[in-house]
Amino acid sequence: MRTIVLLIVTLVTPCFAQAVTRVACIGDSITYGTGLSNRATQAYPARLQALLGEDYEVRNFGNPGRGIYLHTRRGNTMRGFRHMPEHRAALAWQPDIVICNLGINDCGAFLKTEDERPGTFQNEYLALLNDYAALPTKPKLYVWGKLAPLAPGQTFYRSPEPFLMQAEIAAAARRANATTIDMETPLLPLLLKHFPDHIHPDAEASAVIAETVAKALAPAPEPPAATAARPANHTGWATPWPAAPVAIPADIAGRCETWVCAGQSNMFWTLGRCAGADTEAAATAKHDIRLWDFVTGQWRRITPANAKEWSALAVSFAIRRAEATGKPIALLLVDVGGAPAEAFLPASVMASVDANGKPRYPWLLRILTNRKPLEQNEDFPESWVKTVYADRQDCESRGWRVGVLWDLGLARLLGLPLTGVLWYQGESNASTALGGQAEKPLPEPYMEETIRATVETLQGIAGDKAPVLMVGLPVMNRPWAPYRALQKKVCDETGTIYLDTFSRGLGTPDNVHPPEKRPFAELASEAATSALKAVNQAHEH
What we know:
- Mean pLDDT is 90; it is low at 1-17, 233-238 and 393-398.
- The chain has helices at 2-12, 29-32, 39-42, 44-52, 85-93, 110-116, 120-133, 161-175, 184-187, 203-217, 265-268, 277-283, 312-325, 347-350, 362-370, 383-387, 404-408, 427-430, 444-462, 481-494, 518-540, and strands spanning 21-27, 56-62, 73-74, 77-78, 97-101, 140-146, 179-182, 257-263, 289-293, 298-301, 329-335, 420-424, 431-432, 440-441, 468-471, 497-499.
- The chain contains 21 helices and 16 strands.
- Helix 4 crosses helix 10, helix 12 crosses helix 13 and helix 19 (444-462) packs across helix 20 (481-494).
- The strands form 4 sheets. Strands 10-9-11-8-12-15-16 form a 7-stranded mixed β-sheet. A 5-stranded parallel β-sheet has the order 2-1-5-6-7, with helices on both faces.
């Protein structure tokens, strides 16, 4: 009998032991730890182990020089990680969490391969992730959606490929239900001093990688309360990339008009600072107007008590739309004073190429691949943004990062059923004054690129049927005529609706912020009515 009892104890005891969470770090030389004096302690998986503690077991399955493509070679061996013994070993270990860093070694093949085999990179990345998703442990998958940056001197430093590749990685991650990690942003400040061979991080940068991964694995923080006030200085920009997607409030979904309202200070300008504020605020009581803003990530109902705190143009536009349709109005607000177009644009647009592999937006590509914040970026020509706005207390202290408002704002709106987009931006891309000289228009090729890339971005959010309304720069004693002409030209060529505020006499000659936004909102609502009528007629036919 004693033997039987001991046997039962022996069999049962392991069931009470706390299981260790297995973390597999798969990847290339950065995961492996190439260039570090002691990769056993300095490679990011080793540092991650120290951060996570004894409840985790982290293993390094890195293999230098490996990538995604299965058909390309590195010397005499195949490049694809799925060919490697590390891949087989990681699968055999049956991890609970997988952290994947692959892609940068596919530079040089990406554009050519994508041209010859559409979708190859994304599909082969998805196949890799699916190998792990199919394991009995059903591991959580994490992907470096934004890769570690390349430093000046590295072969592909100025190439569009890493940026285009990242869009494909993010798409593969969505398809695999994997979580993306932004490894670019935390490493950019270390780029010049802590990447000694221009591609591999040193011990300090490796520690930052481990910290970034550890934060990604941590439980998500509680969302702010629904009544949270929007910080006046936009300190909420620290939201991790990518921020959470947005859903339309359930009680009005499917029966409301939904409008993205985005731009710089004339979109951000609050109703309380405008003429007629009391009348407009009072009018909100008659309508069901909801507003979401990217800083707090919260919805609130606009009422006479809070209307003056929010965008005058967006609120007035919502009132006009509600009067015209009798429907609830949902506003999605992505607005920051002084923001240049480059802050709103995704890398996939700025780095896009034509069928011959030539950049579609060469000036924007130079700005993007420069890798510096806009106020330090030699390729970015707007001196006011660089020398004045960046020093203001209400500007993000870390400077203007290319694509920051795409990452934290517009990207979260993809896939929503939108009625349309209202865009009021351009002052920060229209003219400049250098060294005390008179203000003059920026180079026309640059201005046209910013407008075209903006339209492409907004139409990508809006979809095929939702109209995009672009507010033309209004009356003011500034050299904006060339920019207005390019706005109208691009709008005419792309099916975007140009709101000709100048011909209507809207604006104030000596004030960049017209003190009354209602006339702008009325013009926009009239254009929206006409555009939506045309869309409905086309749909009926």
